[in-house]
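Supplementary Methods, section 5.1.

A reviewer requested that the exact input to the structure prediction be made available. We therefore reproduce it here, unchanged from the version used in the analyses.
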Amino acid sequence: MTIAVVVDSLERFYFIRRLVKPIEDECDFVFITSEPLAHLLLRLEGHRSVYLRRDVGIRQVSTYDASAFERSIEVLNGQIDVSVARVDSMATFAAVSELFSDGTIERCVMWNGQQLVCRVVSQACAKYGVRTRFLELSNLPGKLFVDDSGVNALSTIAKNPTIIDGYPLPDRADHNRWIEEYEEYKRQPLPQSRTLIRRKSLSLLNYALKFLTCGVGRKRLDRTRASNGARLPSLITEIDVKELISRRYIFLPLQVSGDTQIRLHSDVNNLQAILIALKLAKEEGLDLIVKIHPAENDRSQIDEIVHLQKIHNFRIACTATVDLVRYASVVVTINSTVGLEAMLYERRVVALGRCLYKEFDHDRLMKYIHGFLVDGIDYFGTDPIDGWAARRTFSIGGDV
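The structure derived from this sequence is encoded token-by-token as follows.
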């Protein structure tokens, strides 16, 4: 079996490297990457790697669909100009078409699927009959989301949640042990909100190499973030658990403003969500507590949220999300995983966007967490990944 794996960022490279390691001798892997440093390291480790360059293989392809780049998250967020994305996507489609045309690639695995490179590769997969498999954060400890159709609102279970019904219910004691681990995990800083100096230095080197080698997917320098989260204003404070218990409130966890969940799977943005939650809070006689996502890096977005707070006098908190969820009367979300987590505590959830858990009941929630998600994988970790977890992620043998 030959599996193609898309590596569209250095962060993805660090993860994929760990994921492939325990099973690299069990099947053939070929890597498709837009990252020159990842390409170099993969080649040095003896892997087959295709580096996507803007000046290689550009030719007219009659089946090419421009929506692949026009709806990519980088274009929607203004990180790559449309004219650049058009050239990059044609080069990517041509290079991947050449790789897929001999029919040896059986499966292609990629992250999320809505980035420029991944959207174009997905289009090539459809043309050449290559089975796709998409990975995504579950935002639950030690669990990875894996689906053949897509992630979030595009996933198989979002379209047909009855698929979940076929999984067994977990043992209650096992679930309770997992809840303890989950609560401990949720009280730690979000991994994606932290900046690792060494990795940031490598990212800078990678950016320079991509410029010199005409690599595809190079984001505009003025839209490249230096950190994974902006500094939050001083008015954002922690609320003591005793105070949370004594209050009746709606909790609104905001999402990263440029995330695919908002840009592609919702007609409501963060600011609109605040106004909707304020209206609901007034109707039900509840306070409103808002939490800005720790990985939010758009300073202007944070300033607008603070401006709204000064007008409407709601509370902006930096308290642990698990505590804000546990004691809330209602959790309002666009389509964040926090909505799913609120269901663990039997909170009332109002979802404003398109999300995969809208038709979940308690049993489906348990089966999703303990049956559908792939266990034993920490995306941000450094520990080795077990072979059985890697096999299930790639759908190798009986591990699907």
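The chain has two domains: 2-138+169-178+373-394, 230-356. These observations are discussed further in the main text.
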